[in-house]
């Protein structure tokens, strides 16, 4: 049985399981529509508008796929990519004004209509006028379904950040090009994206409970490893040479890596960010941007149970959304991945990360700690100049050919490469 067939099968199963009509069952409360622009305090605007789950028991037609009559095989539309999902109380239902604006493609101006078929912009211009979380299933002009996780506005245009439930590719799409219905996390839990997200919420050291939360290795058998480097706030010089050396010495380009960015690191390193983007444009690097929080709270010497994101007073919503906003305004595009600062959190934070549609990533090969990678490992380094011991270990392993190659795209944590 080919992998392509399996993916088509997964899609079909998803349709069958999806109680498509249910998302329509609730009337929307337009009064709840407020632009939550990251300025509020500690209240989580997404959670404050969680749809009730009670309607899930009614009006369900498990075989009704009329909402999405034509689903293409996942890779038939290679430009459609990612999508994270939001979970139970993670999602915000689309409000009335939102829904009206996407109700019909007839209203789309000619120029915009053409762009509904892609290519989709790799980045958005200007500052974001609003940025907030949503949770919806959307169908584009191509009749391919993906999941919307964020709503954003820039230069008078409204976009959704969507993720493809099989490939985990994310993209910016004009809101007017999509037909969306609000939905909850459990409605796509049987997709590869949903399964990865749910799995990421359940793993971790149950005894210590706060360390190395999230996925630490691939969920599918894979040759090679997943190279990730963290960019926690730092005043030390960026590890530019180390990345350049990998590019120079690797046999295959682009080098695929995940960079776990903090908002503050981005803010203080615009030149380094531009350099990384240039390498991408040159086809030497392919980066998945992993949310690593905005301020990356840390206090030296303080117990882990009260440190990092567990520090009293930390607003997780702001940490997540401000970091993504910073990335987008600098020309990047968020992925569906998140890494806890210090790899430290707890079960409650983990659930909220899932609510925001993010898959938590830990590591089983933190090189500075002497852990060795094997096939499928998430490798952890720091590229912010704070951990030279990690790169020394990397060099030793590299020379000994003990780093499993090739470096894989993070999205392959969930599904095997279609090249194999
Ligand atoms: Zn960090």
Structural descriptors:
five-stranded antiparallel sheet, single chain, globular, TIM Barrel, seven-stranded parallel sheet, 12 strands, binds zinc ion, 25% helix, 420 residues, alpha/beta, 2 domains
Protein described:
The chain has 420 residues and is α/β, with parallel strands linked by helices. It has two domains: 3-188, no CATH class; 203-413, Alpha-Beta Barrel (TIM Barrel), CATH 3.20.20.370. It has eleven helices and twelve strands. It has a seven-stranded parallel beta sheet. It has a five-stranded antiparallel beta sheet with strand order 4-3-2-1-5, with no helix packed on it. A hairpin with a 5-residue loop joins strand 1 and strand 2 (145-154). Helix 5 (192-202) packs antiparallel against helix 10. The chain is globular. The site of zinc ion has 5 residues, from loops.
* Overall shape: globular
State the helicity in percent bands: 25-40%
Number of helices: 11
Kindly identify the CATH topology of the largest domain. TIM Barrel
**SS-derived structural category:** alpha/beta
- What is the H level of CATH, i.e. the homologous superfamily of the largest domain? Glycoside hydrolase/deacetylase
